[in-house]
What we know:
Layout lengths: L4 E7 L1 H5 L3 H11 L2 E8 L3 H7 L9 H8 L4 E8 L2 H9 L12 H5 L8 E3 L3 H11 L13 H4 L5
Amino acid sequence: MAEAQRTLVLIKPDAVQRELVGEIVGRFERKGLKTVGMKMTNLDEATLTEHYGHLKDKPFFGDLKKFMMQTPVIAMVLEGYDIIEVVRVIVGATNPRKADAGTIRSDLSMNVPSNIIHASDSLEASATEIKRFFKDDELFTYEMLTDKFHFGEGV
Length: 155
Ligand code: UDP
Ligand code: MG
């Protein structure tokens, strides 16, 4: 049987300012992903330097960090089978003008860095990123009546 895995999502300041938080959370809920952590938090420069460390030599690094500090963000941990791939498919490509129609980035945004959402790109990254934003007691394990649809034997 498949094993449930976790990923980290950040709903970015453009989405918070454009009042799209409910829309985005709703898409994940309707898909059948389980929310096991969720909070609003301000990101500081040190956290962002770590989080976007792979981009530290890019010319847009400073602007990206400033953008991410404009307002609080919503941090979420989502659980499901093949969670990294499932969430990245729902999120869409980094450039919203190239993202597939139907994805969050394609449907709701037009530019970078304001592409609405961050999602971990591997299980290794998600383990690090979840620890970066959540304490152990901010993550929850619980049963839902709908688990029978989304977990268990199948393909
Ligand atoms: N970004 C940017 N300019 C670029 C590429 C990326 O401002 O040319 C921002 C954008 O917000 C993106 C984030 O940097 O989501 C992280 O980039 P990454 O390559 O990790 O893309 P992601 O994993 O978010 O799709
Ligand atoms: Mg990335």
